[in-house]
Design goal:
By secondary structure, the protein is α/β, with parallel strands linked by helices. The chain folds into two domains: 21-133, FAD/NAD(P)-binding domain (3-Layer(bba) Sandwich); 140-413, Divalent-metal-dependent TIM barrel enzymes (TIM Barrel), CATH 3.20.20. The protein has 14 helices and 14 strands. The protein has helices at 44-58, 78-87, 187-198, 208-217, 237-254, 267-270, 272-291, 303-306, 314-321, 333-338, 343-349, 373-378, 380-383, 399-413; strands spanning 21-28, 63-68, 91-102, 108-114, 120-126, 128-133, 224-226, 258-261, 295-299, 308-309, 312-313, 328-332, 356-361, 387-392. The longest helix has 20 residues, at 272-291. The protein is globular. The two termini are 36 Å apart.
Length: 415
């Protein structure tokens, strides 16, 4: 369901018709004991909702319906994205689809129970039906091992030996797990999971110097990484700090300049007390990093600006209560804008705190015309800017092409 390639639109596979009535069927083959997959795949809801929004741009006259059992919108900004999609006109039908039949003209008839109207049987006709198929574990990794294999859970995913503090640890020493090998997760969580695995003393299974050499052999500099741990309780504080010691030592051996944690758990957004506990935690981690000659920082999304305590955004509390000698900030220029705040205002009020930037648009840099980067770059000295990381939020092209276009934009704008 890519509205750009290869036809620059969406066509029905059977006959090439451009559909004007499209349905998404969530939980196809998941949450279903009869299919041998009782798990929720977690990612299908939001990926389908995202595709629905993209289709509304490509086919503005099309009607789009999403048939669901439950909407799982648990991540940062997910509920707002779901609400926005409803407001854009996508219809959501809480249902259980029993079967799909095909008419002679190629259209499809959905036979389903209408849950919100007493469970009555209903039929609906669509030009095109997209199945959001449940995720299944890939068990082929077991072929890599001979006598001993890492322990798997009842669903055939690799089981974490310490899910709370070191989720990448497995039952086998020296073998770490990341991404969907440990369970269903989306791309951002997979990246965080990989970062966590790297912090267990290795980077993608490689020793620090080995990984550094791999980067340099390919013309890259290994400057820093995203990794971290959620706020520990008192019982797990020492264990979490020991994890950080190991992670920091590995990064120091690789010669990186910074470590950034790009998230907080819900505790940090539920109350000012919870946020202050996170700030104390980040100050402690920052002290450990500073002792090894590494900067420690925090990366924002939009929620830090939209969540307030006592009339003040979370981001402001963090800037005011973290120790500038121990904690710097990686400002995401796109997410602060999405959070309704101005980067320039923050540079004025908190000069020198933003050593790192995520330079980002909602597509390739400059493509949307919404992000005004020029005044932001003009204030880079006041911000304390030293390094920028380009990130593409939504790809119009293959990833490497998008990166190339973003780099070309930066080269031609003389920022």
């Amino acid at each position: 369901m890519v509205p750009t390639r290869p036809y620059n639109t969406v066509l029905r596979p059977g006959d090439g018709k451009m559909p004007d009535n499209i349905a998404y069927l969530l939980c196809a083959g998941s949450r279903d004991h009869s299919m041998g997959n009782p798990l929720c795949s977690q990612v299908c809801c939001m990926y389908s909702i995202k595709q629905a929004q993209l289709l509304m741009g490509a086919l503005p006259m099309a009607d789009i319906t999403i048939y669901y059992m439950d909407i799982r919108a648990f991540g940062k900004g997910f509920q707002e994205f779901y609400d926005q999609t409803r407001e854009m006109g996508v219809e959501f039908v809480k249902s259980r689809v029993a079967r799909i039949s095909e008419k002679e003209n190629g259209n499809l008839i959905l036979h389903y129970e209408d849950i919100e109207n007493g469970g009555r049987p209903v039929t609906a006709e669509h030009d095109l039906v997209v199945l959001s198929v449940g995720l299944l574990p890939n068990t082929s990794f077991l072929e890599v091992f001979s006598d001993h294999k890492p322990v798997t859970n009842e669903f055939s995913y690799i089981e974490s030996a310490d899910e709370l503090v070191s989720p990448s640890l497995t039952s086998m020493e020296g073998v770490f797990v990341a991404g969907t090998a440990s369970g269903p997760m989306d791309i951002p969580d997979t990246i965080l999971s990989a970062g966590n695995a790297s912090a267990d003393g290795k980077f993608y299974g490689m020793e620090p110097l080995e990984f550094k050499k791999l980067c340099e052999d390919n013309g890259l500099k290994f400057l820093g990484s995203h990794t971290g741990q959620n706020l520990p309780d008192k019982a797990n504080w020492d264990k979490t700090m020991a994890w950080w010691d190991k992670a920091i030592d590995a990064h120091a051996e690789a010669g990186v300049k910074w470590i950034v944690q790009p998230w907080m758990g819900e505790v940090g957004y539920e109350s000012l007390d919870g946020l202050k506990r996170y700030i104390e935690y980040f100050n402690a981690v920052g002290a450990k990093c500073k002792a090894k000659g590494i900067y420690f920082g925090y990366h924002n999304h939009d929620k830090e600006f939209t969540t307030e305590f006592e009339g003040k955004p979370v981001q402001d509390w963090m800037l005011e209560l973290t120790d500038p000698e121990k904690v710097m900030f990686q400002l995401d220029l796109y997410w602060i804008d999405q959070g309704g705040k101005s980067a320039l205002d923050y540079f004025d009020r908190y000069p020198g705190r933003f050593m790192l930037w995520h330079i980002k648009d909602d597509k390739e840099l400059g493509a949307s015309g919404k992000m005004d980067f020029a005044p932001i770059f003009a204030a880079k000295e006041k911000a304390g800017f030293k390094y920028g990381v380009v990130e593409v939020e939504e790809y119009n092209y293959d990833p490497l092409v998008s990166v190339e276009k973003s780099l070309e934009y930066l080269k031609t704008t003389n920022f």
